[in-house]
Amino acid sequence: MWREAVGEALREKRHEFGRRLVDLAGDAGVSPQYLSELECGLKDRSSEMLDAVAGALGLDAAELGFRAAARLRRATREAELDSLAAAVRRGDALPGIALGGSAHTVDPLPEHPLSSADPTGTPWSGAGEAFLLAA
């Protein structure tokens, strides 16, 4: 997972600067194939190589690590929310959520919880999407 997060952070920054892979690879002193494998999370990388590629993007390795860690945190939160939303849709008891000292089972979400149209009369779009509200 870490390799993929680092690779995605590299690719995102490269695109942000409008750099072509082949040009960045040349500036970093690595082959385009190696850089492509780094960006895809397929290649184990040394700290020296990461520093060279990050430097060619105007970053240091610490900034690249920070960006990758932020991606991992987002991915973890999204996976947890997806799992929780699926449990709510199934009506499962939610672990770790207790009201009055006991866990509660929640009712599954109806297909259309309010109506088929918003207050302006426009039909709802995205039927089947689940939204999770937490207090």
Oligomeric state of shown chains: single chain
Order of helices and strands: HHHHHEE
Estimated helix fraction:
40-55%
Q: What is the percentage of strand-forming residues?
A: 5-15%
GO molecular function: DNA binding
Pfam families: HTH_31 (PF13560)
Organism: Galactobacter valiniphilus
Protein name: XRE family transcriptional regulator
Describe the overall structure.
This is XRE family transcriptional regulator. Pfam families: HTH_31. The chain is mainly alpha-helical. It has a domain at 2-75: 434 Repressor (Amino-terminal Domain) (Orthogonal Bundle), CATH 1.10.260. Helix content is 53%, strand content 8%. It has helices spanning 2-16, 21-28, 32-39, 47-56, 61-90, and strands at 93-99, 102-105. It starts with a helix and ends in a 30-residue tail after the last strand. Residues 98-135 have low confidence and may be disordered.
Outline:
53% of the residues lie in helices and 8% in strands. With 135 residues, the chain is mainly alpha-helical.
List keywords for this structure.
135 residues; mainly alpha; 434 Repressor (Amino-terminal Domain); two-stranded antiparallel ribbon
Please give the structural blueprint.
Blueprint lengths: L1 H15 L4 H8 L3 H8 L7 H10 L4 H30 L2 E7 L2 E4 L30
Antiparallel strand pairs: 1-2
Protein name: XRE family transcriptional regulator
Organism: Galactobacter valiniphilus
GO molecular function: DNA binding
